Amino acid sequence: MHLDAYHQFTQDLRVRLESDPRVLALVALGSMAEVRRVPDEWSDHDFFVITVPGVQEQFRQDVSWLPEAGRIALRVRETAHGLKVLYDDGHVLEFAIFDEQELFLARVNDYRVLFERSGGVAQALARIQQQSAARTVDLPRELELFFFHLLLGAARCARGEILSGHRFIKTYALDELLTLLVQGLPGVEGDTGLLDNLDPFRRVERVFPELGARLNRLLLLEPIAAATEMLALAEAHLRGRLPAYPEQAARIIRERLASFASARG
């Protein structure tokens, strides 16, 4: 979507919701908020609508309040509070409807309140943003899960369950590896302020171009080879830096991956 059209959609959405007395606030999220980055042609509209209590489900069930609702080609209820909507030109909306109490179920990083009828929403969002940023990751546990998912995925590939092996290695283990690598551990340097603290996959290539390129290359490998490369990458960055690095487990995983690769020839 062209930037002018994007901003016009945002304005239309704001006008429609601000005219409805049941709506307490509209909150732009991510690039729609235009806090650290601006939308581009690939951006969707990501937002929260805050309503008075008791009408949230009406807004989730009937989306005629959206601009040009007659052009909606597809909609799906993604969570108890959120939906995804596809327009006939390919533009996507991702949004959630909350009352002020339900809002505390959310997590946010970049946001901007486009309108509100009181100061309560802005205060709540500031608290939620702080809580979201303060969330800590149990890094030793992530590393242990990473090892297990590499091994389980490789074992399934060795058994001939290639699709399942791909998922364990290139989805579960990759998620854990990225979580470990973007936590500001020594040995991985970059402008981490651009990273998304809610999604470790976002903007990795911009912040860590060499790391992003290496990960993208290894994902093109067959899964056991990819697992071997992922383990080597983890060991290069985490051994000696992560407290209580499980050396014995790492050796066992490394040997098992080598034996699986050898067996497959």
Compute the average pLDDT: 86
Total number of strands: 6
Low-confidence stretches: none
Tell me the structural class: alpha+beta
Biggest β-sheet strands, sense, barrel: 6 strands, mixed
Shape: elongated
Q: Tell me the Rg in angstroms.
A: 22 Å
The CATH C-level name of the largest domain is Alpha Beta
Strand content: 15-25%
Helix content: 40-55%
Q: Structurally, how many domains make up the residues?
A: 2
> What's the tally of helices?
9
The side-by-side strand order for the widest beta sheet comes to 3-4-5-2-1-6
List the helices and strands and how they pair.
Blueprint: H1 3-18, E1 23-29, E2 45-51, H2 56-61, E3 72-77, E4 82-87, E5 92-99, E6 111-116, H3 120-134, H4 139-159, H5 162-181, H6 204-207, H7 209-218, H8 223-238, H9 247-264
Q: Can you describe what's shown?
A:
With 265 residues, this protein is of the alpha+beta class. The chain folds into two domains: 3-134, Beta Polymerase, domain 2, CATH 3.30.460.10; 139-264. The chain has nine helices and six strands, in the order αββαββββααααααα. The protein has helices spanning 3-18, 56-61, 120-134, 139-159, 162-181, 204-207, 209-218, 223-238, 247-264, and strands spanning 23-29, 45-51, 72-77, 82-87, 92-99, 111-116. It has a six-stranded mixed β-sheet, with helices on both faces. Helix 4 runs antiparallel to helix 8, helix 5 packs parallel to helix 8 and helix 8 runs antiparallel to helix 9. The protein is elongated and about 65 Å long.
